[in-house]
Amino acid sequence: MNLKKWLRKKQRQIKLDRLAKQGKACQPRKWVFIVGCYNSGTTLLHNIVASHPAVASLPREGQYCTDQLLVPSEVGLTRIWAFQPERFIPSTGNEPDAEKIKRQWCGLMSNPALPVFLEKSIPNAARITWLNKHFPNAHFIALVRNGYAVAEGIHRKAGQSVEVAAKQWRESNRIMLEQLEQVERKLLLRYEDMTAQPAETLEKVMTFLELDGAKLVLDQKWAIHGTTSNIRNMNARSLARLSEEEKAFIRQEAGELLEAFHYSPES
C-alpha cells in the first residue's frame, strides 16, 4: 500500500471512529436497502432513487462508510462474497454493531434531515433479515439480471472465470431470495424490465416507497462505473462477448435458477 492510499485509509478510520463515538444515530421514517448481485444494475437503480428530493444517500456503498461490515475485496473475495457466505451472514458472535453503523451512516448521509435514507452494498443480500431487525421500517428493493450477462461482467471486471462468476450469481441470488421471504416490506425487480420500461418500473418503486414519482427525472444520462448513458439494456453487449463454451459453463453452474427467471444466453 502506497503512502497516499495509507493516509486516505487512516483519515477514513479516524472519521469513522469519531462518528461511532460522537455521531448521532438519526431516525429517518424509512430505511431503504437496494440489494442484488454484482453487475445487476443496482448502482443505476440506487442513483435514480437517490435523485428524489426526499431521499438521502451515502457518498459510496454503505460497506465503505462504516467499519462494521466486512468488505469482500479486503478478504480476497473480490466480487465473489457468496463463496464464503458465513462471513457475511450475521450470526451469534459475528454481528456488526448496528448502532455504530447508524451513527456512521447518518454522519455521512447527503442530508440527514430527509425522511428516507437509501443504502446499497452488494453483500447486504446476506444481511436482509439482520437489517430488517435493526433498522426501523426497513424496505428492500431487490434487483435480478440475466445471469449470463452478469457472469460476463464479473469475469471481465474481476478476472474470475465464468464458472466462478455464474456460481456467484446463483448463490448470491439464492441467499437473497431466501432472506427476502422472511421480511415483509420488499420489492423484487428485473433489470430487463427496468431498462425496457423505466417509467413504469420506477413508478412501482415510488409507490412501494410512498414517494411522489413525478419528482424523479428519468430522461437524463447516468454515470455508472465510468460510462455515461441513458437508461438502456446493456445485456446484448455482454452476451456478445461470451463464447458458446462459456455460455455452456454458465448454464452448467446456474441452469436451474436461469430457467426459473426465464433467462437465455441470447437476450
Brief account:
The chain has 267 residues and is an alpha/beta fold.
Structural write-up:
The protein has 267 residues and is of the alpha/beta class. Helix content is 45%, strand content 12%. The protein has a five-stranded parallel beta sheet with strand order 2-3-1-4-5, with helices on both faces. A two-stranded antiparallel ribbon has the order 6-7.
Q: Profile the largest sheet.
A: 5 strands, parallel
Radius of gyration over all CA atoms, rounded: 18 Å
DSSP helical segment count: 10
Classification by helices and strands = alpha/beta
Largest sheet, order of strands side by side? Answer: 2-3-1-4-5
Q: State the separation between the terminal residues, measured CA to CA.
A: 42 Å
Summarize model confidence as the mean pLDDT.
95
Total strands: 7
The best one-word shape is: globular
Fraction of helical residues: 40-55%
Unreliable runs? none
Strand content: 5-15%
Order of helices and strands: HEHEHEHEHHEHHEEHH
